Structure of Endoplasmic reticulum transmembrane protein:
Amino acid sequence: MTVQWTVVAFFLYAEITVNLILCVPLISAQRWRLIFRWRIWSWLSPYWNKCFFTIIMVLIVLFLDALREVQKYSGPEPMQDAKVNPNVYDHVHMKLFRAQRNLYISGFSLFLWLMMRRVATLLNQVAVTMEDSAGLQSQIDNAVRAAKQQQEDKLTLKQSFLEKEKSMSAAKQQLKLEVEKLAGQLKTAEEAVRKSDADIEAMRRQAKGLAQEYDRLLREHHQLQNLQSAEDKKDR
């Protein structure tokens, strides 16, 4: 195996290891998000896209080269030469085996490289979604608590309103009773006033009658005095 394919093989093993680690369920998406926030990734982020596409291009070139080798050694001409010379037959099959091996190594390396990026992106998106869902859940909990608080406040206000209404109804009933009591007292006072007016009128009439009787008696008394004085003059 040449140096380049040895590097690609080790790269494939590294991709398998990294993908298996990314798929381990013991490490949550939030932990991977914290790992992706390390400073080293922010430092490498300007070069990441260039490195990613460069590796893709290298793997594609190696894959196409391996595919060309497979087509080269699986064609009719090498097989005809192999049938003529047994040593050539073994050499052709060895070359074909190496080409197929290189084809599989480069193909799986390209596939796992794309899959690793996709898995990392999905883990990051899952972590963001979980954070957003946690934020939404906290907002929902706050809204539920606020709704419960408003409901409790509404019940408290309703209860206080009912109590005030009861107290106002009781005060209104008491006021009504007091008004009826005052109306009765007023009626009694009016009857007493009418009775006192009648008594006063009777006393006025009685006083007037007494005054008239007094005037009559006074006139009779003057007449009697005049008569007595007249008789006294006659006797003299």
The longest helix spans residues 86-235. DSSP finds five helices and no strands in the chain. Helices lie at 3-22, 29-36, 39-73, 76-84, 86-235. The CA atoms of residues 4 and 233 lie 188 Å apart.
